[in-house]
Amino acid sequence: MTARTSSTPWFLSLPGLIFFLGMVVLPLTLTAVLSFHAYDFNIGVLDSYTLSNYTTVLSDPYFLSIFWRTLRIAFITTVLCVVIGVPEAYILSRMWNPWRSIFLLVIIGPLLVSVVVRSFGWSMLLGSTGLISKASIMLGLGPVRILYSEAAIVIALVHVMLPFMIIPVWTAIQKLDPGLEPAAWSLGASRFTAVRRIILPQISLGVLSGSLIVFGLSASSFAIPGLLGGRRLKMAATVVYDEYMHELNWPLGAAIAFIVLVANLLIMLAYNRMIEAKARKVLG
Amino acid sequence: MDRNGPIALVFHTLVVCFMLAPLVIICLVAFTPDSTLTIPTTEFSLRWFKAVFVHPDFMASFYNSLWLATLAATIAVLISLPAGIAISRYEFPGRGFLNGLFLSPLIIPHLVLGVALLRLFTLIGATGSFGWLVASHVVVVTPYVLRLVMAALTGIDRNAEQAALTLGAGPLTVFRRITVPMILPGITGGWLLAFINSFDELTMSIFVTSPQTVTLPVRMYMYATESIDPMMAAVSALMIALTGIAMLVLDRAFGLDRILVGQK
Known about the structure:
The structure holds two protein chains of two kinds.
Chain A: H1 7-34, E1 37-40, E2 44-49, H2 52-59, H3 61-93, H4 99-108, H5 115-126, H6 131-138, H7 150-174, H8 180-186, H9 191-219, H10 223-228, H11 236-247, H12 250-283
Chain B: H1 6-29, H2 47-53, H3 56-89, H4 95-103, H5 110-124, H6 130-155, H7 159-166, H8 171-200, H9 205-208, H10 216-226, H11 230-254, H12 256-261
Helix pairs in contact in B: 1-11, 2-11, 3-6, 3-8, 3-10, 6-8, 7-8, 8-11
């Protein structure tokens, strides 16, 4: 490892480079091309090129309503994750060990359990014979069925996404000087003011990065709308699956998938810009 | 128990209940003696667990997923180790590009990877091949391994390597006898995280599996959309138990918060 010629790092990265060019760059390029192919319901994918897949998806009320639903659900999920995740991360950071480690495990651990399993758990809780419905009957409110509604999708999404919000916020809180809050109190700030003026501004980047992860993952989530939305409530990912597996209109499905990808990348880009602007403000 | 007020503790309790509720309900329903999804109150039965172990499709998918995750995690380590050394120890033009390329599966939705790989596999006639399914899983788990390997590489004391070199060890011997043992926690942690992620992956797999190579999550998804009986709860409970064991191992060995939260 002493010979530091410029070819060594490329030589070391070569297996990964070849693999990723073949398994990521090439398939994405092929799919991008596919999304511009014309399609005929009787013949299949045609050799001619067209923009019609994109114009169809972006003008057809059916697809537009799915995009709006996807954005709406992802947005509500993100807001709820901020509202629940930020205070929870703060509360966790103020606990003593071993409670802190135990509860961090309890809250982040479900991340490792398959999404199918967790969605199935929610479908049992939210169905018309589920626990929540039974509780409502006992309270004299009659049965409620949340399953197969947008509310069911949001509840399960918040459950799945909450760790992704808590992790970056928790990391940001860990970097804070523990003496800051007492300093604010000793200068006469109330506990609330100390949190609002001292803690929140310093963890805002953590909240922002958590929000982006949550929004991106929610907008492209598949298992939860598939299992909890029923046949009627489609989101972007489930409609792509339908186009691929049931309608067999691959070019149209590819166009929707690419819109999801581009939207995701734009959000990430905007986030990087925001971080750079913030860093410049801090430095300047 | 700490510096939180009563309101904070109530809030915290609600969040913990919310996080555990679906998992607890699964583990309860799995023990039902009935053939509907009910919570057993008086009698507990293992019949649905027994049913899982004699269900040929579930068992085939389980072994399939087990092999898939083992192979994918191992190949991801073999790719990440040299690539991690290149990216974290060398300054060279294209370093940022390689880093971005290897981590890109983290920001590309699995849905998009799934349709993209399906297109590739159809064109080269590889649909239904287990080998190509492994390759597609390597794509999604490599970033996790690479991040932990790179963190381990930057965290170790390089004087030991220098000392071995001055004592006459060749670069390969230094790598094998000094570097790898020092970053072993990072490698093992990365492998386990990759294994779990591959074992749980649904969205990409549902596009690139065929009837012969259906993975366990895909099988469960299909099963849950078609029929709902307590067998699904039993499979889910087994998955939770397996994940729980993996979590305990990870936690004992490296500290789960360190791996998932990614602090120093």
